Structure prediction request, 263 residues.
Amino acid sequence: MMTGIPPLNPLMPGLGIVPPPILSDMPMAKEIVHCKSCTLFPPNPNLPPPTTRERPPGCKTVFVGGLPENGTEETIVEIFEKCGEIIALRKSKKHFCHIRFAEEYMVDKAVYLSGYRIRLGSSTDKKDTGRLHVDFAEARDDLYEWECKQRMLAREERHRKRKTEERFLPPSPPPVVNYSDYECSLVVEKLKVDAKFLEAVQTLLAWLERGEVNRRTANSFYTMVQSVNSHIRRLMNEKAAHDKEMEEAKEKLKLALSGILAQ
Prediction:
């Protein structure tokens, strides 16, 4: 730490951040914190830092022990409201309390005060002094809010994933109309037109899969199937003729190239 620059205190006015982690070989200097009704004295920097339990998920509640016997809720609020908005405070008669903050990062500021010696006013009476021990605490409200947040994040992730998958899905085919004599006549006409042949075949297949064929409609379906068969046979003949023309054109090209090379 550079000389001439005082160490940063996260409880100083205007600093709404938690101090960055300091390496173990660098002593962390803490300052005296003055409040209206009490004073907080920092622990000995040569002593090891206070131990804390493993932080519960979504922790917004801290356990505060070592309070002065004459300490009041007003004094506790005065000390820890510097860390952030206090939602609830439950004080016990055995010189400890639980404090719940509005946000998780405020807990880190409160734990920073662990190890501080507290003195009420200028009294030196034992009942007016104590050593704060601040630690993470488990609370059902914290766990419930954390689980709700995790479920909300999971829902948002599933929603984003579903939207991403929907963008890559092929477009849905248009709905097929129900069978009727009128629609049947339209399909028969479409089967005769090359541009509408595929659409008509898809409609015919959908009707067949639905089981629209019965004694009354059997003749109509037979007519449509015959039209499809005729159209396919014509396409096959045209394809065979096209393939034959391609082979003849290839032979003519080979002969022409052979004549050019022979020259």
Observations:
- DSSP finds six helices and eight strands in the chain.
- The beta strands are 33-34, 38-41, 61-65, 86-91, 96-101, 117-120, 129-131, 133-136.
- The two ends are 94 Å apart (CA to CA).
